[in-house]
Amino acid sequence: MKHFDYIIAGGGCSGRSLAVRMLPYLKASNKQLLLVDKLPKKGNDKTWCFWEEHADVFEPVVYKKWNRLLFSSHFIQQELNIYPYTYKMIRAADFYTYTDEKLSGNPHIITIQGNVERLYTENQQAYAIIDGEVYSSDYTFSSIPRIQNKRPERYQYLLQHFMGWVIETETAIFDTECATLMDFKTPQQTGTSFVYVLPLSPKLALVEYTVFSEQELATEDYTTALKQYIEEQLHCKKYTIKEQEYGVIPMSDHPAQRQQGRIIYLGTAGGFTKGSTGYTFRFIQKHTSAIAEGLTKSGNPIISSVFPNRFKTYDAILLHLLGSRRLSGEEIFSELFEKNKAKQILKFLDNETSLMEEIQIFSTLNKKEFTLALLNRTLKTIA
């Protein structure tokens, strides 16, 4: 049996983020980490977008930044002042290349390709069975998705599913300094839907159609919506699709198990996808940074929480409203952006506001529907 001080099971965004952040600690303590993933990570299989006030460790791979954002719906259209935040985009291919360079050849990191068949804790040790071989560690960090026994009578379960095209146009139609955060001028019959547009050059942009609903759509439904948006909202009929991406993100208020003995869960597996919006990248960074800090200070990677639990309740209320359709997502977000400063909204969506700031935000929303959603959700969870 091979023993490592730490094992990271899953070499995606959260696993690689933690490995990079642990490098100084591993060197200082002369410890070894095993990073295992089923498949090599090479292509540009996804794009991460987020906002932040200060540059973090992955600033070198930020592909594009915007200081101006646009919000649009059938109710309002406004440019958002997001200072002191900057909206950023990281391409997966660049992230994988950068982290490969950081991790490969490091004497404290062993990287292997293999199938993690089982993780378990026994006698104050964590164990991983990888392709039939048993490995032990002091702690194992896992981002591998787990099967969840759903309880729809208590919790909400929606999906955020999306298809995006990087398109190149014949003429310069994009403002490279301003990205569209949300444009709700899309079909709303299947659920809350919007498009975001990230200009990469005057003739190049990522145009992504996103839907919040219980079920994914047929491929032709995404393509139809994208074609319609590009022609009717961007007023563009001649373009070339350079890249395509597709993804599904779970949105739920079902509590996630963040630790099981000596196994600590990361990313979506640990509940670090924001239930109401699907944003994940910044929450992964907050969590992995806290783990690395805990190891450096005390050798203990177990942390209590990275944000107050009340934000889970806020997410649950919004999910209930979206699921019940008593208020449309377009109505909710339009009211939110019309009556609040953008920087306060972004701070709130990052789970960083104070209770007083949250009360101020809630006072601008539909009090009756939000109160009913809170009451219904509370009754469900105590039944």
TrEMBL record:
The keyword Amino-acid biosynthesis does not apply. It comes from Pedobacter cryoconitis. This is Lycopene beta-cyclase. One of its GO terms (molecular function) is isomerase activity. Keywords: Isomerase. Its EC number is 5.5.1.19. Gene3D superfamilies: FAD/NAD(P)-binding domain. Pfam families: Lycopene_cycl (PF05834). It comes from the Bacteria. InterPro entries: FAD/NAD-bd_sf (IPR036188). It is an enzyme of class 5 (isomerase).
